[in-house]
Structure formats: C-alpha cells, structure tokens
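tool_call: predict_structure(chain=1)
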Amino acid sequence: MAAKPAKSAALPAVFVGGVAAFSAASAAVKSEDGVVRRRFVKDLIRAGTWYKGDTAHQVPRERLDHWAATFGKMTEAGVKVPLPLGHTTDPERNRGYAVGMFVDDTDGTPTLKAEVELIGDDALSLANRTEVSICAEPKLKAGNGAEFTDAITHIALVTDPVIPKQGGFIPLPLAASRGGGTVDAPCFTMAQFSQESNMDWKALASALGINAEGLDDKTGPEAVLAAIKKLKGGDEEHAQAMAASRKEVETANARIKALEAGKAPEVPADVLDMSADATAARIDTLTPKIGPEAVKRFKGLLCGEAGKRNPLCLSRTAATAAGLPDSISKLVIDALGEVVAGPATGGKAGTQAFSRNVPGDKSNGGKSGADRLAELDPELNKKY
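tool_result:
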C-alpha cells in the first residue's frame, strides 16, 4: 500500500493506541480534601505508520519528541492535559491529568509515554479496565497568549482504543475558550489493529500434537500453553509426547509465517537478532529437561534465520500488538521450564566403588568390597 500524506493538518487528530496496561508509579494517597490520588505510567502512541482507511500518516520519533517537549512548555505556561472519560471537554467526565511525558525506546520501538495522576476512587478503578487514545491539535493558544503547535490536548480513557478497519471521523467537542462548537477529527490507527493477523497457530499446534481446530490469535496461546503444561512429569506419557513434538517441530517451522508487511510494528533486524541470541541461550538451559535434539529444533522454530526472524516470536512489542500477553518464545520457554526432567539413563563416568554389601549389613564392618580386597591383598592395593 502506497503511503499517502494525511490531509488533516488543520484539524485535531485522534490516535487510537495505548493498549498496554497502566503501570503504577506511586501508592494511593489522600489529599487534604480527602480525595484519593495515584500516579501511573501509560503508553500513549508508538512511532510508525498510522492509517485512516487507506490513507497513511507517518508518526516518526521526531514527532514523539516534539509532543513530549511541547507538553513541558504547556506545563510551564499552566496549560493542563486532562484525562477525560471519552473524547470530551466536559469537566464532569474528567478523571485526572497528565503530569509528565517522555519517549521510551527500550523495547526497540520509540513509544511516547505519560505519567498520569488519576483522581478519585472511580478514576483509580478505571486503571484496570480502560485504555487510552490521544487528541493532538494543530494549534493551541493558552490563556496567557502562549501558542503551541501540534500539541496533545487531552488523553481520553476509553474501552475500545483498537478500532477495526477505522476509516471515518470521530466527533470531538472543543472547549469554548478555543472557539466552541464541534469538529470531526480524523481517527488514525496502526495497521495491525485494523487487519487480522495470519499467524499459523495450526502449525504450532501440530508440532505439539494437539487439535488445531478453532485456534486463532485469541485461543491459540492458551491452548498451546495448556498442551505444553501437560508434558510435565518425566513419565512415559511425557516422553512419548516430547518425542512426537520433536518430529513435528522441523516441519512446523516451515509452515509458520510472519505477519504480512504492515500488519505489525516494524522491529529492526538487529533487535530481532539480539533477541534471537538471548532466546537461543535460554533454550540451551533446557537441555537437561527436553534433550539436545528438542533444543535444536525449538531454536529453529522460535529463533528462525537471520533476515527471516518472526517478530511475534521474538518481539514483545509485536506480540502484544497482536493481542498476545508476551512474545511467543517467552511463553513457550517459560512453559517448557516447568517440564520435570526424567531420570538420567546410561552409564556413569568416573571412579566407582563396587560392593556386594547389603544396606544395613554390618558383616564387613560397613566397608566396601574394594576396601576389603585391599585388606586381604596388600600387594594388590599397592598396584592399584
């Protein structure tokens, strides 16, 4: 799909992102007026290509930095960024304010995050059941005359930030101090939210020997984890199931495909390579539990080849965007880590003492057969 420039520079724009959970940044406290307050850190929007229908709109790292810097200037000028319940300027629906804004790229993808303060018991309860979407206005004029361009004016608490196939406009009321009335703001969403993924859960299910019928991005992770957990115990059933999975892993690896271009956040190749190295190291630690052959094949399945890495397997960002709780490699390795290793078989190396003593028998004075032979034949002891 060819990228087209957005034609909404003169209008506010809504970006439906922020799907990660609120992360508590402080304990709940009561102010002098008895109102409960608590601070959280929340992701707002990632750098990448956003869409309104087929129209592409680029949000580069530089724009995230601009939003964070502009927020700082607005704060100095006394302009607050509220957290309303839904896209509204109704003060009765406000549940708090943003108190800080910064760009974080520790996961490989620059992400604009905000430290927010939720105010009131009802607001704190929303942290466990809402997401956010932001409204960015092209121009904002503060009460003291200060002007800001491309500024985030509110962070809406919503229950449906991910809008499938979003292509229309969202009615947005404006405060009277900024002209009043209602405008239609273009609503942008990332491609992976507006299109279905093509993750081949059937291939992974086949590798684990479970029924693949009805598996998708919602049911697949739970079914796969449940199947792996059944392999715990180190008994015959576990050994047979692991043997079957080993035979299927190689063919499953060929059938599992990455999401089509544009359906997941772009993850740099070097980030995927580093994650693959770390994943391979974690799989190596499972050798005593699942055996070297299984380790080799799980590496191929989860790490892939350089230049052909699967972002869902190695990137938490790509996986959570597709609705998974974490990267597939972490989910699988964590589950395999619960497998109980079976008893060791084969010969033992090193010096061994042989004895025909019966446990509890004191007839030889508690000495091993080797010690008794040495006592009977001192010359033999000298030789050996």
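agent: The chain has 14 helices and 13 strands. Proceeding to next step.
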